[in-house]
Amino acid sequence: MKELMVVSEVTTNGVGSGGIIIGAAAATSAASGASATPPQDLRERVKDYGQDGVFALWDELSLEERDFLIRDIRSLDLARIDRIIRCSFRSQGVPTPEIEPVPETSVSKVEERTMEERARWWKMGLKAISEGRLGVLLLSGGQGIRLGSSDPKGCFSIGLPSGKSLFQLQAERILRIQRLAAQSNDDTFVPIHWYIMTSPFTDDATRKFFESHGYFGLDADQVTFFQQGTLPCVSKDGRFIMETPNRLARAPDGNGGVYSALKSSKLLEDMAKRGVRYIDCYGVDNALVRVADPTFLGYFIDKGVASAAKVVRKAYPQEKVGVFVHCGRGGPLAVLEYSEMDPSMTLEINQTTGRLRFCWSNVCLHMFTLDFLNQVAHGLEKDSIYHLAEKKIPSVHGHTMGWKLEQFIFDAFTYSPSTALFEVLREEEFAPVKNANGSTYDTPDSARLLVLRLHSRWVVAAGGFLTHSVPLYATGVEVSPLVSYTGENLEAICRGRTFHAPCEITY
Fold first, then answer.
1. What family does the Swiss-Prot or TrEMBL record give for this protein (predicted)?
2. Do the Cβ atoms of 243 and 251 come closer than 8 Å?
């Protein structure tokens, strides 16, 4: 890091022309009897990496604060972090390959699938699930800050008649699939193992939430929690930012941190020991996610690819979603974030279809082989290239601009020797919960409406009738995941019956 470390003047807000200055040492020690200087070995280590500014306020610290700072710094793998900063900084401004749209002919589209294919994939998927070959990987490191809650986002209820949280909806879908898999295999099955990635900010609360709710009917030993890592936030010249005089500013390493977390926690080996060969990976904030979808799994196995992703068509050109693209003509698939797209690209039309050229949205619904996950975990760590997210960072000088270092789950696709894209309908499988009610999109209200509308269609298709105390667009019925996964098993319950919405169908 030495070439990145530039000493600069300090302005009144603590930001200089070359970066963020951590602070100036006080003349006297605040802690009587405390060590006059930091441990020599530690001073030499941080100096080797150009990060000796972490001790700039040492003389102002109490004995306890000094001890905390020493432990905080010793916990860092400085060589790895230095490599990440160097590689990530160097990657900025490097010319990227020409971006090409994904041809529609290379996507499995909803309207082109036959009933025979769907039935075959469903059966193949259930068989693999019953034999314990599928593991489920949940990305759940975020808090519901934008939803007005400091709790883990999975604890959030979108206001369904049942009041169920996102965690409960997903757990009950796993229970339903287990039941269907057992029925398809003479009532024998291996429980689906659920790997849940938390963060240091959500881990304890997530574990307690599951414990207090009895794991929502799952066996406790079929759920494994593990934490994603964090990385120090850095200034524009690569120096660590101090949140307080004795604590580094840190941030989670992005949902792509799941790969290094799986590797460091030896959960890839755990999956292999359990006989898991395929991993269904998704984000917690989708109220309509089909967890452990047998059709998607069967399609994945049938294609024999290393990775796959469910995609939906962009709703409109300016929709804030990343899209799948080819990096160079015939190059690997990758996800281009909406913020990285030239505005003109979002408007380009495929003259043959009349649709958007760049239309296949990434909605964080992925399938990987275990062999490929191992490859990605080693490849991403070796390359050490992270995305630089410019953010306001809490620091000893107040909030100041700096970089958070993140990897994304979709970074894996550029490593894949073969990727399949599988179109789904957003009204059936994509109800994101990202913003508080009152926002223009992706709110609890909009997600709830999508769930109730879908379930109302299931009830009507099964021969049921609905009455409403308020207009249909504002309400509907909720079908418990324990009763039905995709609308099956409802005729005996619904045919000829009238349901007064809003309500939950639980039997």
1. Belongs to the UDPGP type 1 family.
2. no
144 CB neighbour count, 10 Å cutoff: 22
**CA–CA separation, 234 vs 455, rounded Å?**
47
- Residue 269, pLDDT > 60, answer yes
Least Cα distance to 227 among 254, 249, 196, 272 occurs for 196
Which parts of 92-223 fold into alpha helices (H)? 115-130, 166-183, 203-212
| Contact of 464 with 497, CB cutoff 8 Å | yes
Q: How confident is the model at residue 507 (pLDDT cuts 50, 70, 90)?
A: confident
- Output the DSSP codes for 265-291: TTHHHHHHHHT--EEEEEETTBTT--T
- Tokens 């009738």 identify what position? 465
In the prediction, which pLDDT does 471 show?
Answer: 57
* Amino acid at position 290, single letter: R
Do the beta carbons of residue 53 and residue 245 sit within 8 Å? Answer: no
What pLDDT, on a 0 to 100 scale, did the predictor assign at position 40?
A: 94
Residue 125 has pLDDT above 70, yes or no: yes
Residue 338 binned pLDDT confidence (cut-offs 50, 70, 90):
confident
b/e sequence 464-485, b meaning 16+ C-beta within 10 Å? bebebeeeeeebbbbbbbbbbb
Q: Which of 268, 290, 263, 295 is nearest to 279 (CA)?
A: 268
Rounded distance between C-alpha atoms, residue 369 and residue 73, angstroms: 36
114 exposure class (CB count in 10 Å sphere: 0-12, 13-18, 19+): exposed
Q: List, in sequence order, every beta strand (DSSP E) within 338-409.
A: 360-369, 387-393, 400-406
Contact 460, 497 (CB under 8 A): no
Q: How confident is the model at residue 474 (pLDDT cuts 50, 70, 90)?
A: low
Structure tokens of 403? 């970089």
What SS3 string covers 18-66? CCECCCCCCCCCCCCCCCCCCCHHHHHHHHHCCCHHHHCCHHHCCHHHH
Contacts of 54 (CB under 8 A, 6+ apart): 22, 46, 69, 73, 240, 242, 248
Plot region of 57 (φ>0 → left; ψ -120 to 50 → alpha; else → beta):
alpha
430: helix, strand or coil: coil
Res. 12: pLDDT tops 70: no
Q: What is the pLDDT of residue 470?
A: 59
Per-residue HEC secondary structure of 123-136 comes to: HHHHHHHHCCCEEE
Q: Do residues 364 and 283 make contact, with C-beta atoms less than 8 angstroms apart?
A: yes
Q: Which of 193, 142, 190 is nearest to 166 (CA)?
A: 142
CA torsion sign for 386, 228, 252, 255 is positive
